[in-house]
Design a protein that fits this description.
Blueprint lengths: L1 H7 E2 L2 H21 L2 H23 L4 E2 L1 H11 L7 H15 L13 H12 L1 H5 L29 H8 L5 H6 L11 H13 L5 H20 L8 H5 L4 H7 L11 H21 L6 H23 L9
Parallel strand pairs: 1-2
Helix pairs in contact: 2-4, 2-10, 3-4, 3-5, 4-6, 5-6, 6-15, 10-13, 11-13, 11-14, 14-15
């Protein structure tokens, strides 16, 4: 088995550290929503690896361990009750059209996990916007269940949907700890911050790419909130609701799709936070973070080139 793994997969130490940082969130997801978390994750991983293997085998290349990270991240952006076939379609689409068509790992423009999530979000909206499950609390929580009960009203959905329907905010403590309805890995601010600490401790992510989106998000959210703009939420409530914090830690820090220049990372991150706020407050979609990251993925090469151009010293023209 070990020899087969060595022949099939390309070892990537950084990706293994990312997986390590995701372990607390995976365990938390099981606690909050039950063991179906692992069933969904295993199914998506199986088909994600098979998809990349199909493309790489034809080129006599190995499957990258980055595919495991993509599959785990994609799973954690989904509700626990997501039909397995929807998850399969999503990951096959993400690996194929956001990674392999660009030439595989290192050449992709878009984050494959986010591309997969966005595709099924607009194609199969019901499982991702209506079908939610109650988050467990107390012991043993979801460890004693296959899946937690489904909620029976849309107003009992994710914190952002709950706010949109009732104009009331869930307690901050509930949002921070994670026992709130939502996607698997996005409910607990505490576990996401623990994951961020592990990433930074092992130098597996750039702190600028984590901090810049939060700065842009909180700054613009505060401006709109203090200006009493309709639909603007309290900045801290908005930060710990939905997937923005999760994406700031694990998606914007993707070394392939993020800028390489220091200044570019700040621009990229701040604009991601601002665009997320704009979509949430003025757009039709409750969650804007995934769209914001994909939009900014498009502009990464331009941002880096612009930064390099501005920083490159130019000789003064000498008049004849």
């Amino acid at each position: 088995m070990r020899e087969f793994y060595k022949k099939t997969f390309q070892k990537q130490a950084v990706m293994r550290k990312v997986i390590m940082s995701l372990i607390p969130i995976i365990v938390g997801s099981i606690y909050f929503f039950g063991w179906r978390t692992l069933v969904l994750m295993a199914t998506i991983t199986l088909f994600g690896v098979a998809t990349e293997y199909f493309f790489e085998k034809r080129l006599n290349k190995k499957v990258t361990e980055a595919v495991f990270v993509t599959c785990i991240l994609f799973t954690l952006t989904l509700p626990v009750s997501t039909p397995l076939w929807v998850g399969i379609i999503g990951i096959v689409f993400g690996i194929t059209f956001a990674k392999e068509v660009f030439g595989g790992f290192g050449f992709n423009v878009f984050n494959p996990a986010l591309a997969a999530r966005t595709f099924i979000y607009v194609t199969f909206p019901e499982p991702l916007t209506i079908s939610w499950n109650v988050a467990s609390s107390g012991f043993p929580g979801g460890f004693g269940k296959y899946i937690t009960p489904a909620v029976d009203a849309i107003s009992q959905g994710s914190p952002l949907i709950h706010f949109g329907e009732t104009n009331t905010m869930l307690p901050f403590k509930q949002l921070f700890l994670g026992n709130a309805t939502g996607s698997l890995g996005e409910t607990s601010g505490l576990l996401i911050l623990i994951g961020a600490f592990i990433l930074l401790r092992h130098k597996s992510a750039d702190w600028r790419l984590m901090l810049a989106p939060v700065i842009g998000f909180l700054t613009f959210s505060s401006i709109l909130y203090l200006s009493n703009v309709s639909g603007a939420q309290h900045p801290l409530f908005s930060l710990f609701s939905g997937g923005f914090l999760f994406l700031s830690v694990f998606m914007t820090t993707d070394p392939v799709t993020a800028p390489k220049t220091k200044e570019g990372k700040w621009i990229y991150g701040v604009l991601t936070g601002i665009i997320t706020t704009i979509i949430r407050v003025f757009g039709l979609f409750v969650e804007g973070a995934m769209f914001a990251v994909l939009i900014m993925n498009i502009f990464v090469p331009i941002i880096d080139e612009a930064v390099k151009y501005i920083k490159t010293p130019r000789k003064k023209e000498v008049s004849a």
